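Quick one: co-fold with molybdate ion.
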Amino acid sequence: MISVAEALDQLFALVEPTDIETVPLTAACGRQLAEPLTARRNQPPFAASSMDGYAVIASEVRPGASFRVIGEAAAGRAFSGSVSSGEAVRIFTGAPVPEGADRVVIQEDAERDGDSITLGHSLDEAFYVRPLGGDFHTGDELSPRLLTPSDIALIAAMNHATVPVRKRPVVAILPTGDELVQPGEDPGPDQIVASNSYGLHALLARAGAEPRLLPIAKDTLGSLEAALTLAEGADLVVTIGGASVGDHDLVGEAASNLGLERSFYKIAMRPGKPLMAGRLSDMALVGLPGNPVSAMVCGHIFILPMIACYLGRKAAPAPRIRATLTAPLPENGPREHYMRARRDGDGIAAFERQDSALLTVLADANALLVRPPHDPARQAGETVEYIDLSTGG
Ligand SMILES: Nc1nc2c(c(=O)[nH]1)N[C@H]1C(S)=C(S)[C@@H](COP(=O)(O)OP(=O)(O)OC[C@H]3O[C@@H](n4cnc5c(N)ncnc54)[C@H](O)[C@@H]3O)O[C@H]1N2
Ligand code: MOO
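Sure, here it is.
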């Protein structure tokens, strides 16, 4: 059995970043920006008023001072003249502050009478001028990242209508097992509902991949080989189940019959021991164990870092964070253990029940507490490492 770190290295070796494509802004959220994007203008492109009021010379502002109003500036309609001593320009939020003026007195602080204003006795001290380029300057860069709604607003303001993004890696998900039916169907007494295929679909979609759920394959070589053929054209095929040593665990054999060049089989990890990987024609193949939690944990530990690589990001394991144990842990065995855990504030505690079939426990967990092989028993108060389950992308 190889270690988790060795397995990850071999998985990364199977990945080539996807091509770059250009998409409109409205289709760019959740996509991986492929190259640094440069601002095409300053924002704001001029010194702008942040309030409705009067633009004046700051050094002339004092309680009771009067000014002559010589014009108006609104958003999209600048005042073309300049402000001299004793003068004011009526100004609205977002308008360019006219030449000569360097402060906006809010209208609540001024009394208007025809063409003149008189300031009140207690004045707001703020200047209410947003400086030119106060948000960003021409040439400022947005670095490659998975784009959020906030990024989209920023890219639009930088004056880009389209965005270069990585193509979503296509991931075929192949659930296998005679016992499985689809959610919503009517399972027989010895059947169960396929679950982790849907969990993985969600995990992959959130991470910027394009998951494609294949029909459930039966535990026969014929059915498995036919289903694997359906995956053709994908960047990655992820099989679920049939990976262990039982008589009906045939995924490895079916993939070998189709020409799988195996990278490894079995890792020193819990859950996830019977993980398998290799290259199948132009695709990478990862065979996940069928236990619902094992498949999902392997999704976080192996598949998400692979997706990041497909998207052109650095090959790196899931980031680990430190927290303080709030409950003791027993000694760990020979496999690296990813315990379902709950982190609250700085503290973390593993759930009592760690069976890899318990989806309720996984749904309650927001962290995987990582135990190195042969880690001794730990007491409350000790520092441990965990992987955050809530981000995943
Ligand atoms: N004698 C041994 N038995 C087992 C070993 C071992 O080393 N020696 N390893 C155990 C470990 S660890 C795991 S993990 C499982 C992995 O088994 P498989 O990958 O072959 O998975 P299956 O047997 O097909 O299924 C296991 C379990 O998961 C359920 N399942 C499968 N697919 C799904 C799905 N898409 N959604 C929900 N549930 C699924 C399946 O019904 C089984 O209950 O092997 C141990 N055995
Ligand atoms: O590896 Mo199995 O995944 O321990 O349940």
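If it helps, The pocket of LQZAQKY5 (ligand 1) is lined by residues 175, 177, 179-180, 192, 194-197, 240-246, 249, 271, 273-274, 289-292, 294, 356 (CB under 6 Å).
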